[in-house]
């Protein structure tokens, strides 16, 4: 394998695999897929995956600290597949504009749940 390919593959594995070099790894479970470090559905409002919590200042915020769903390999891959299908012929800024639609993102979440389930347990 040429060096440029190795370098690129390392970058892909860091993003798509278990990023054991991250100072926060594992933030959910050992062997998690880190592709969705920042969940594309946040805040999903799904009480099977997260909950509202109070901050120190008394305001509330959505917490997905106990959600492992998006970090499961089959779920992470299916989310990516859904997103790529919608954006495959788009430039990056246009794709982000499309995906910046909450209703669309919740539809993607629903589609993934139908395909792979929504079990939030290991």
How would you describe this structure to a colleague?
With 122 residues, this protein is mainly alpha-helical. It has a domain at 36-116. It is 43% helix and 7% strand. It has four helices and two strands. It has a two-stranded antiparallel sheet. Helix 2 packs across helix 4 (102-116). The longest helix is centred in the middle third of the chain and has 15 residues, at 73-87. The chain is globular and about 55 Å long. This is Cysteine-rich small domain protein. Residues 15-88 form the Cysteine-rich small domain.
Helix run count:
4
Give me the side-by-side strand order of the main sheet. Answer: 1-2
The main pleated sheet reads as:
2 strands, antiparallel
Mean pLDDT: 94
Order of helices and strands: HEEHHH
What is the terminal separation in angstroms? 35 Å
Keywords:
about 120 residues, mainly alpha, two-stranded antiparallel sheet, about 45% helix, Zf-like, Cysteine-rich small domain protein
Layout of helices and strands:
Blueprint: H1 3-16, E1 51-54, E2 60-63, H2 73-87, H3 92-99, H4 102-116
Helix pairs in contact: 2-4
Organism: Methanothermococcus okinawensis (strain DSM 14208 / JCM 11175 / IH1)
Protein name: Cysteine-rich small domain protein
Domain Cysteine-rich small: 15-88
What does this entry show, briefly?
The protein is mainly α and 122 residues long.
């Amino acid at each position: 394998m040429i060096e440029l390919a190795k370098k690129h593959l390392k970058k892909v594995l860091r993003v798509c695999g278990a990023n054991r070099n991250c100072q926060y790894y594992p933030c959910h479970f050992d062997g998690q897929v880190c592709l969705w470090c920042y969940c594309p559905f946040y805040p999903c409002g799904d009480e099977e995956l997260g909950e509202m919590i109070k901050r120190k200042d008394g305001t509330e915020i959505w917490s997905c600290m106990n959600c492992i769903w998006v970090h499961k390999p089959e779920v992470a891959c299916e989310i990516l597949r859904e997103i790529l299908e919608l954006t495959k012929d788009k430039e990056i800024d246009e794709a982000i504009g499309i995906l910046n639609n909450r209703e669309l993102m919740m539809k993607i979440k629903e589609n993934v749940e139908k395909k792979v389930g929504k079990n939030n347990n290991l």
